[in-house]
Each structure stands twice: as C-alpha cells, then as structure tokens.
Design a protein that fits this description.
Blueprint (H helix, E strand, L loop, with lengths): L6 E12 L3 E8 L2 E8 H7 L6 E6 L10
Antiparallel strand pairs: 1-2, 1-4, 2-3
C-alpha cells in the first residue's frame, strides 16, 4: 500500500457499529482505540469485520489542542 498520509496505524478491528448510511469502525492500536466514521458501502467493499487487521490512516491539515 502506498499513500501520501504520514500517520498510518496498524491494528485490529474491535467493533463495527452500523448506522443508516455510516458505520463507526473501532480499531485497537496497541491498547488505544481509534474510531473511524466511514460509509456502510466502504465497510462492505473492504470486507471489514471484527477481529480483522486494518489500518487507521489519518491525514489532516490541522491538529487542535485543548485544555481543561
């Protein structure tokens, strides 16, 4: 796989929660969970399922920082 994004986290799918048009895919990356919001069509096309290995690919032009 060759892509331009610099943040690629390999992990295991722990849960897929399907909505009307969008699914939330939770990926365990070394004990931390990353949640991706993708279309149900993408879930089907990629044949995603719980227990399967997947990559969380993060590409953003901005990163925000917050404090309490």
């Amino acid at each position: 796989m060759k892509i331009s994004a610099r943040n690629i986290l390999k992990g295991t799918i722990t849960e897929i929660v399907k909505g009307a048009t969008t699914s939330h895919v939770r990926i365990d990356v070394g004990g931390s969970v990353v949640t991706a919001s993708i279309t149900n069509e993408a879930v089907a096309d990629l044949k995603l399922e719980k227990g399967k290995q997947a990559y969380a690919v993060i590409k953003a032009s901005d990163v925000m920082v917050g404090i309490d």
